What does this fold into?
Amino acid sequence: MDLVAAAVADPVRRSILTLLRSGPVPAGEIAARFPISRPAISRHLRVLRESGLVRDTLVGRKRLYELDPAPVAPLVEWLTQLGRPDGWEHRFDALETEVYRTRRFTRKERSA
It folds into this structure.
């Protein structure tokens, strides 16, 4: 998950992943779409390959890159947990109930 998070942290790599959503794309075509050098694109593709987010295949003299979204699933699952407080609503409701109970009990003690 850490490799995937590091890979998607870079905006160029995110753009490459978006480009690959539509299907396999040759390395040369990927490089032509960015205003950075081919070696820089090569390094970005290596990071994406090492994280498992892209696969490459050699077809003739072209190297095709394609998206593999499977490694993103654990990261998405973890991020989703941050968005929803599992069980916290229930715990706050229970706390509220206890606060009201304590207030009632305290009021009864004072009036007795």
In short: The mean pLDDT is 88. The longest helix spans residues 88-111. Helices lie at 2-8, 11-20, 27-32, 38-50, 72-83, 88-111.
